[in-house]
DUF3619 family protein
Amino acid sequence: MNEQEFGHKLAVHLSAATREIDGELADRLRSAREEALRASSRAGRPGRFFGGKPRFRLMLPAVLRPAVLVFAVLATVLAGDYWVTWSRVNSLQEVDTALLIDDLPIDAYLDADFKAWLQQDSQS
């Protein structure tokens, strides 16, 4: 017996049992049953976020999904590394340009005290 047959037999028994009940209890049971049927029909629609297969899963075979996930994570990590490296090189380039544009003679850059002053200034 599959799911549909079981559901059909259960519905027949529930329908027969509700005929024996009368009054307010029968109305409450009928409204609860109708609400459950509406909820199950909404959940069965494909492409919904809840209660259905998402459409993007249908595009890839199950074998390729882990590979695509690994590729996406790797691409994100590499893009982040590239961005950090580029921003670091860019900031060093700005410092080099400022030093080259300055009016100090070349001997001042070779002085040990100047290197110490630069390191102390960059740390603060």
